[in-house]
Design goal:
single chain, alpha+beta, Alpha-Beta Plaits, two-stranded antiparallel ribbon, 4 helices, about 15% strand, binds iron/sulfur cluster
Length: about 150
C-alpha cells in the first residue's frame, strides 16, 4: 500500500489518522489482524496495458451541494491541470473546464462534501473538448494509436 496525494494535501500527520481509521474500520468489520485482510484487493488488479485508453470522464461539480470552500480549485491549480474556474458570472464559484480536465480525480478526493463532485463518462461519439477527438470504442495500449508501435498509429 502507498499513499501520496493525501500526504501532499494534508501533510504527514495524515498517517496518524490513517492508523486510527484503519483500526476503527477493522473493529467495525470484525477483522482481528491486518494479516487477515492482506491480499483481498489482489483480484481487482489489472495490467495497465489492458486498461481502456478510450475511457474518458470529466469532473462535474454539483452547484447545489458545493459550499465554495475552494479545495478542488487549489488542488487542481497547484498539482494537476488548472482545470477549475474559481469565478462564475463574476462571483466566487467553482466550475470544471472540460477543455483542460484530464480526469485525475484529485478534486473528488479533496472535496469535503460527499458526492459533490462526480466523474462523468463521456458517451461514445461525443467529442472530448480537451483532445478534440470523438470518444471511440475500447482500445488498450496494444491497439491504441497513442502507442507508436501499433498498426493504428501507422
Ligand atoms: S479531475 Fe483532475 S484535472 Fe479534472 S478538474 Fe478534477 S483535479 Fe482538475
Ligand atoms: S471542494 Fe467541493 S465543496 Fe469545495 S469548492 Fe470544490 S466542489 Fe465545492
Amino acid at each position: 500500500m502507498q499513499v501520496c496525494t493525501a500526504a501532499m494535501t494534508y501533510g504527514f500527520k495524515i498517517v496518524e489518522e490513517l492508523i486510527s481509521g484503519l483500526s476503527q474500520w477493522m473493529d467495525e468489520g470484525g477483522h482481528e489482524s491486518v494479516a487477515s485482510i492482506v491480499g483481498r484487493a489482489v483480484p481487482n488488479i489489472r495490467d495497465w496495458q489492458d486498461l481502456n485508453l478510450n475511457y474518458v470522464t470529466k469532473a462535474v461539480i454539483n452547484q447545489d451541494a458545493c459550499i465554495k470552500c475552494g479545495r478542488c480549485f487549489e488542488v487542481c491549480e497547484d498539482t494537476s491541470h488548472q482545470a477549475i474556474f474559481d469565478v462564475i458570472d463574476g462571483a466566487r464559484g467553482f466550475k470544471v473546464n472540460d477543455a483542460e480536465c484530464v480526469a485525475c480525480n484529485l478534486c473528488v478526493n479533496v472535496c469535503p462534501v460527499d458526492n459533490c463532485i462526480t466523474m462523468t463518462e463521456l458517451p461514445l461519439g461525443e467529442v472530448d473538448p480537451r483532445t478534440g477527438k470523438k470518444v471511440t470504442t475500447y482500445a488498450n495500449w496494444q491497439s491504441h494509436p497513442n502507442n507508436p508501435a501499433t498498426s493504428a498509429a501507422q
